[in-house]
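Ligand: beta-D-glucopyranose. Inputs:
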Amino acid sequence: MFYFHFSHPETNWDWDEIDTQNIHFPNSFAWGTATAAHQVEGNNTNNNWYDWEHQLDRDNQPRIHNGDKSSIAADHWNRYPEDIGLMNKLGVDHYRFSIEWSKIEPENGIFDIEAIQHYRDLCDSLLKNDITPVVTLHHFTHPIWFENIGAFEKRKNIDHFIKYSEYAFNNLKDLVPIWCTINEPSVFVSQGYFNGIFPPGKKDPVLAATVLENLLYAHTKTYKHLKSLDGGDQVQIGLVKNIFQFDPLRRWHILDWVFSKVLNNVFTQSSLDYFIKGKSTFSLPGMVRKEMENNDAIDAMDFIGLNYYSRMHVKGQANLAEPFIFAKRAQDIQTDMDYALYPEGFYKALHTISTLKKPIYVTENGVADRGNNIREIFIKRYLYALNKAILDGLDIRGYFYWTLMDNFEWAEGYKMKFGLYEVDFKTQERTLRESSNLFVNMVQKPGTDSRGYIVNIGDIAPNFTMEYTTGERVTLSQLKGQVVVLQFTASWCSVCRKEMPHLEKDVWQAFKDKGVKLIGIDRDEPLETVIKFQKDMGTTYPLALDPGANIFGLFADKNSGVTRNIVIDQQGKIVFLTRLFEENEYLQMIEIIKSLL
Ligand code: BGC
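Predicted complex:
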């Protein structure tokens, strides 16, 4: 137990110590929202979920909370022009949505031209509004005829999915650069074949394993097939994987560890191994053990989509009929769903998914919060976790908030409120939730370039007041009329130390009498350290203090590094930016300074 405890520590960050606001995402980062057809479109009367919503269970109870039915949902089918307007207001530039197979192919082999045209129109409108369409081919729903022939329970049925995918691809490929094949195989399987709360409502571990294998196989085959089609090499195609971690409730209890491990393997690791090694084992001891093998699966994706919400705490018990249960902890912040907030888990999941060695899109992340109590905390902390993973160097290309507006939340019906926009389902009126503004602010905040800068050449430099080691206070705007060179530095930074003698000679000594002001700004160190630093370096240009790196944070992401130089012309405009001490760039800077004089 000690071994597990120390080798798998539970990550808990001290949120009182963390500044979640001072983060920046790369300029190139894709920001989006996500939806799924059946949850928002309305009038999906020909798929497995329609059937399910209209059935009663063995106890004559409705399948869906409160007896809700998706019916016209958020009427997105008709209101998508208005909804694109809502996306524009958020400032997002991507939209992930699913297309409804049961509308496109209502009968086996018969395709509905109007339905596919609808999706073309949607994509057209998105593109006209500078929003990139991202299509999911299967998001939990499929036609009743497909369900009736056994859906993904039978390997041979996969050809039907491929035919539909090919039809959709050929009709939309000129408009859609990013494609997701299947949404969350593990969730589809655990809810539909293990817990029995999604259609087809079975509780059959052996069948669950078969369906999971078939879905992973279906992704692989679809991926290969679409890539082989004309235009296949022009688009990115990936799978969407949900990661939900299972952690031991009692860290000293072997049963909790064992069941957590089993569940993590079944839910996540077996799927990842399938694509990393081309083989994996799906094992629920005493119930099912399945060896899955498919060499074609290795590398069979251009990106991986990660959906992350939370984790579960597992408590093992000496009861053969129910060997484990999920338990809540009093200290956790609960969402309206059956799980708590766990941003640290999001960070961990990003690292886990990165083992696939593919570019990552966060294809879903959001919170159900009817009372608007925790959405702000959720947004702050989960985006902080995302940012931290990006700073670790993970190749994360974008983030899709789940979800644009309130919707039909599957077995939970309309009870769950995941939307950035609140929907009044009587009037279909959409209103931005106050708590969503934090997301909007982050989307609209200036992004960083590849070197961590948030300012650009051509910008007017942000104004600030600094204090030199001598106690003299200077405001940048007072220096107008001179060329100002700011060097962000620190005593612990070896590259800064290398650069400083050169700056002293080539900038300060060379131009200080010709209208150039060189100022070193020391990143967040106390006065004595900075004075000693200056003495050690033997430099004579002024050094200013920057407690909390607040001045630094006006120019670059606070989490990025020094040394960097900012050249500001006589009018206060930024004309050059350097990072590290690279000879060519440095020489270019000297030339720029000369040209300004
Ligand atoms: C699904 C969404 C769902 C969301 C929130 C994800 O597992 O892909 O359709 O609404 O979770 O529960």
